[in-house]
Design a protein that fits this description.
Helix content: over 70%
Structural class: mainly alpha
Distance between the termini: 79 Å
Radius of gyration: 30 Å
Length: 596
Amino acid sequence: MKLPSWLTAVPPDPRAYGHLIQLCADSGNLAAGRQLHARLVSLSVKPSNFLGSKLISLYSRAARLDDARRVFDAIPRPSIFAWNAILIALSLHSPDPSAAVRLFAASAISPDEITLSALLKSLAASGPGLSALVAGELHAVAIQRGLAVDQFVSNGLITAYANAGDTGSARSVFEEMPRRDVVSWNSLISSYARAGWYRECLDLFQQMMRVHAAGGVGPNSVTVSSVLHACAQLKAVDFGIRVHRLAAENGLDMDVAVWNSMVGFYAKCGRLQHARELFEGMPKKDAVSYSAMITGYMNHGHVEKGMELFRRADVHGISIWNAVTAGLVQNGRQSDVLGLLHEMIDSGMLPNSATLSIIIPSVPLFSTLLGVKQAHGYAIRNNYDQSINVVSALIDAYSKAGFFYGALKVFELTGDRSKIVWSSIISAVAAHGEASEALHLFSEMISAGVRPDTVAFTAVLTACAHAGKVADARKIFDSMQVVFGITPVMEQYACMVSALSRAGMLKDALELVNSMPFEPNAKVLGPLLNGAAEFGDVELGRFVFDRLFMIEPKNTGNYIVMANLYSNAGKWEEAEIIRSMMWGVGLEKIPGCSWN
């Protein structure tokens, strides 16, 4: 590109250069832009905020982040325009999602709405740990500077809070918005879908449709994809069909993502024929399309149909291989997985983090310590060792292989300790009988701002039960609803009954059982029967045994525990009657049966 003669004047006209650099950025002409930059350097021109911002934008659009940063660093006193330009560049192209936030934290600038939008965008690409730490602080800055009502800032806050797993705060921001566009609605709807709040996702979509009926903003293809995902998880067939009809009748952009959502919805709900008809009618298929259809077949036990579709796939992608691998594991075909893994590698497709999270817990090769270490080494070499699902699988595998130190080391080296990772290490510690360490980790989890889930509660309560820490178990059990708003389910009641029964607090255990909002199952009553047997309470034991007999009459463990309880109490005739009941139904003792 030949430069006009008027641009060679000394001193150069910064506005003329800035205008032309902007044209180069807009047209993607990096070479011409660099030529202009070189000319400025040859004339010993230090970039002003105006020229610097234009050059940063040029290099940012070309993903030349190092060049953009050098320009920024050469600006003597960067203005808010220059700061915004570099923060936008970092949020878009930096491999480190925290780079923009760290640079901003080291500055003394007064942010505007563009600054906050760029920082919030960088959080969208980060893990939940950074989002949880920073989203609230950026929200406070936005409120302080009167920017919280800005639509772009609010949309960014919704996404950042959702990424941090704080869906409640995301909803609060949404409710406080004076105006909402389709991005606002989609940000919250998709956050509900990702967080597993599927019912709330559908409720919010219905609210959006009421607004649309009154002349407000309506759904687009992104909305439809998120809502159909929620419908698939809930098996809400009728709702999903209405969403499908809405998309078709309103002429929404039916891109491949929407097609994939529809195929995935019908396949997951068992409407396999309809899913296949949609699949075959797709104008263009990608790897996700095949994965959705194969997963549908595998989920409903049609392994051969899934394999047949896999073999004739005309597109390639790791997601297809992972769908088949997961399907084989799900259908008890673990013996076929290793061969498929070799076939995948021979085809030039290497396992990714999703592959590892599937095969590590399920393939016998990785149940040995050597196998776990080999998988761990592969994960490190390929930068998968920070993947949440891989970390969780490795912690579990090391624990089951008896190498508790390995599980703890994986946890300690994990930077982004999500709820899943915390739950995994607490479960591993509990499985090894380290109740004090499990309690310590549970406390650390809460201190880190991570809200425990039912898995973490079950793990720490199990550890308390086995270690006889009844007071700790009571405190944690009571905190579920009072502090965290989580209603205990059968597993947590079973753990608490076990803790009380092991400590001989049989009256308290029975009162807890009678206070349950649902009928107790064998997992709850079993520990109570064991406790009655251990502490010689024949009356309670017979009461619990009779209830267990109604639930699972063929479980030999119940007969044996009750017979032994009678024998230890010197009630030989009653013990013989119980044994006769067991022989009468043709049962034999099952080795290794335990309630604890």
